């Protein structure tokens, strides 16, 4: 853990300093729990009430919230407190130095050259003709299949499976248990018997992607599955074969994306969303949690589906009425026509 003065932090994140720049800050914490030597942030107005009682030495906040503070902590004033908090947290908690090498229990094919700056951890298995980039870390229990390419400064935390022929860009972070390049769900029906369709494509992952724990990205059936640069995938996301996800898109946990769907750039997909296959979602779309996307989205905007949570008794009444909506609509139409 590092320690920096508040003035150093303010200069690094381009925030306005109001208060004691000589304060030493060594940790981040919530506005409710922070104490001496710690910095907190307020990005949501519901937490303004804690400004008067916080024990933090400093707080990151917007100008309109700063006007509410007449005494107490020093301030870093900015337009995007959450972003500034993220940068400060990274500065105060730098990634530990990495030393190159191969753990004695790792199994590395003779055809693989491990750069001096890369590290292969215990029980990792790396098959023939794999390329490992400079400064990359292959964590304990990881599997890298033949002909896979891992870029520079990647980090595969632990027990990550990268199957054959997968290409991963630079600075990619993959959390434990993720599987990249497993077979897609492809079967042809032969009079009630399922015949497997060979999955002959690969997976291409761009630079600066993060993939959450136990997320799965299937290889393409013929063409590749493609994850664009800067994409962020949460835990337990299922990306089916031949899906394409545009640059800068963020997808929350437990989302399921069926095959051959294309998602644009800078989209935000909420947790538990289901996206059916063979459709297109344009750039700059937001989909709220637990929605079902069953058709193309061609206009940027905020989309939702489903019904909000309510008491079970009321939900049952509404559910019973759903079946009568078509009949009700027809009755209204007849009444309108009669007028």
Keywords:
5 helices; Udp-n-acetylmuramoylalanyl-d-glutamate--2,6- Diaminopimelate Ligase, Chain: A, domain 1; UDP N-Acetylglucosamine Acyltransferase, domain 1; 3 domains; ten-stranded parallel sheet; alpha/beta; 14% helix; 339 residues; flat
Structure overview:
The protein is α/β, with parallel strands linked by helices and 339 residues long. It has three domains: 4-92, Udp-n-acetylmuramoylalanyl-d-glutamate--2,6- Diaminopimelate Ligase, Chain: A, domain 1; 101-303, Hexapeptide repeat proteins (UDP N-Acetylglucosamine Acyltransferase, domain 1, 3 Solenoid); 313-339. The protein is 14% helix and 28% strand. It contains five helices and 38 strands. The strands form six sheets. The protein has an eleven-stranded parallel β-sheet with strand order 8-10-13-16-19-24-27-30-33-36-38, with no helix packed on it. Strands 9-11-14-17-20-25-28-31-34-37 form a ten-stranded parallel β-sheet, with no helix packed on it. An eight-stranded parallel β-sheet has the order 12-15-18-23-26-29-32-35, with no helix packed on it.
């Amino acid at each position: 853990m590092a320690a920096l003065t508040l003035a150093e932090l303010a200069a690094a994140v381009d925030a306005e300093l109001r208060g004691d720049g000589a304060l030493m800050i060594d940790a981040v914490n919530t506005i409710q729990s922070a104490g001496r030597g710690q910095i907190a942030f307020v990005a949501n107005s519901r937490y303004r009430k804690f400004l008067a009682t916080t024990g933090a030495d400093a707080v990151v906040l917007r100008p309109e919230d700063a006007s509410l503070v007449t005494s107490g902590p020093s301030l870093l004033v900015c337009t995007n407190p959450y972003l500034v908090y993220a940068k400060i947290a990274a500065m105060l908690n730098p990634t530990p130095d990495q030393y190159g090498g191969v753990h004695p229990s790792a199994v590395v094919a003779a055809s693989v050259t491990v750069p001096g700056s890369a590290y292969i951890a215990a029980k990792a298995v790396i098959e023939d003709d794999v390329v490992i980039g400079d400064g990359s870390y292959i964590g304990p229990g990881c599997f890298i299949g033949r002909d896979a390419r891992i870029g520079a400064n990647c980090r595969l935390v632990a027990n990550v499976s990268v199957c054959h022929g997968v290409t991963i860009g630079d600075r990619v972070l993959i959390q434990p248990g993720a599987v990249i390049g497993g077979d897609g769900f492809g079967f042809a029906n032969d009079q009630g018997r399922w015949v497997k369709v060979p999955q002959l494509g690969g997976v291409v992952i761009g630079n600066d992607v993060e993939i959450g724990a136990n997320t799965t990205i299937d290889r393409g059936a013929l063409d590749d599955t493609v994850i664009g640069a800067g994409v962020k995938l949460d835990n337990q996301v299922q990306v089916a074969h031949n899906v394409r996800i545009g640059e800068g898109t963020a997808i929350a946990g437990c989302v399921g994306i069926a095959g051959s769907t294309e998602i644009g750039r800078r989209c935000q997909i909420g947790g538990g969303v289901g996206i059916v296959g063979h459709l297109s979602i344009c750039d700059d779309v937001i989909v709220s949690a637990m929605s079902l996307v069953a058709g193309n989205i061609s206009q940027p905007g905020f989309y939702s589906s489903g019904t909000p949570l309510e008491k079970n008794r009321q939900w049952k009444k509404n559910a019973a009425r759903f079946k009568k909506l078509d009949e009700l609509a027809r009755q209204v139409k007849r009444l309108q026509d009669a007028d």
